[in-house]
Design goal:
This protein is of the alpha/beta class. It contains ten helices and eight strands. The protein is globular, with a radius of gyration of 20 Å. The protein starts with a strand and ends in a 26-residue tail after the last strand.
Length: 334
């Protein structure tokens, strides 16, 4: 009997992680850009081989009610660390942030493992002195390509200190590639989407649906080095969520089809109230859109701040399987 993707996602994540570790994606990233691109391709090919042995219900017979019930059940059984249940440390003193830290989400073990892998990849080969600028350490011929890799303009890149942005951005890029590969292997119907762009229409003072490339595949406007940057929309006010979890993965991700948004913050990344205020504005709009569409009467999406390593799944926890009898079609408040 085929295993529903939502319940088998931890295995898929394991394959993605194994493939990326096997090919050491990110090594010698500054001096061997072509090798980096080839490693990405090899990792994808290896994942496809691994996936053949996994019996998954990938694209057919996806029942909307069942899937939402599974998401709610998994969310309800989310195991959290003490600093997540009772927020402390980074961001805990920022207005409105503790609620996002405490928010229960599905797939915490998957997000935790992917972040752990990204955190441990030998991504930065430079031996930088404190305060050293990229322009002093990177050959001029590599500036443009590495700037793209780090989602920066050439001007931002050359004036940035190596230790300020590099490690965090490369870790985030590794997370993006792993989850995007999982989505691709699931014919773009995966339960996790990364770098989800919500264009902002200033005239209407509203966010728009994420640009799509087909029914369920997100549009990308970047290069093969970094497909996630630049975003499909550069309109002022546009936001991009690190991870979006659709309520129903067989339909396009939209303002009426978001179960949760997860913002990942590695150590060294800033936690800003302004960013979460924009997410809350989006949430209000999603609530209205869902109400008008008859999807729900009172809820938008769950907004979560996932700080790594503080908010990773506690050691020994396994909460990807809903408890018997807990599946129903009601939306939990947590």
């Amino acid at each position: 009997m085929a295993v529903p993707v939502i319940l088998g996602i931890i295995k898929i994540a394991g394959y993605a992680i194994a493939a990326y570790e096997l090919y050491h994606v990110g090594m010698n990233i500054y001096t061997e850009v072509e090798a980096y691109k080839n490693n990405i391709k090899k990792a994808k090919d290896e994942m496809k081989k691994m996936m053949k042995s996994l019996d998954l219900e990938i694209s057919d017979n996806i029942d909307k009610r069942t899937e939402l019930a599974q998401l709610n059940a998994i969310t309800g059984s989310d195991k959290q660390s003490p600093v997540t249940k009772n927020p402390s440390g980074r961001g805990a003193s920022v207005a409105g942030i503790p609620v996002a830290i405490m928010q229960k989400i599905p797939f915490r073990p998957v997000i935790s493992k992917v972040c752990e892998t990204a955190d441990q990849l030998p991504m930065v080969q430079l031996r930088a002195k404190k305060g050293q600028k990229f322009k002093d350490a990177i050959p001029k011929s590599k500036v443009t390509i590495v700037a793209k890799l780090l989602s920066m303009t050439v001007e931002e890149f050359t004036d940035a200190s190596i230790e300020e942005f590099t490690i965090v951005r490369l870790k985030q890029l590794a997370v993006n590639f792993m989850i995007e590969c999982m989505d691709e292997l699931l014919t773009w119907r995966g339960p996790l989407k990364v770098e989800v762009c919500f264009p902002f229409n200033a005239r209407m003072n509203q966010f728009q649906n994420p640009p799509m490339d087909g029914t369920t595949r997100l549009k990308r406007s970047g290069s093969d080095i970094n497909p996630f940057w630049p975003m499909p929309s550069r309109a002022r006010g546009t936001i991009s969520a690190d991870i979006a979890i659709p309520e129903y993965r067989a339909e396009a991700l939209s303002l009426t089809n978001i179960f949760a948004l997860v913002e990942i913050k590695f150590q060294g990344d800033r936690i800003q109230e302004e960013q979460f205020n924009k997410y809350r504005q989006l949430n209000v709009q999603c609530k209205s859109a869902k109400y008008l569409s008859g999807v729900t009467t009172s809820e938008g999406f769950k907004l979560s701040l996932f700080r790594y390593p503080e908010d990773k799944t506690p050691e020994g926890s396994n909460n990807e399987k809903p408890q018997a009898g807990s599946s129903n079609n009601r939306r939990g408040r947590n």
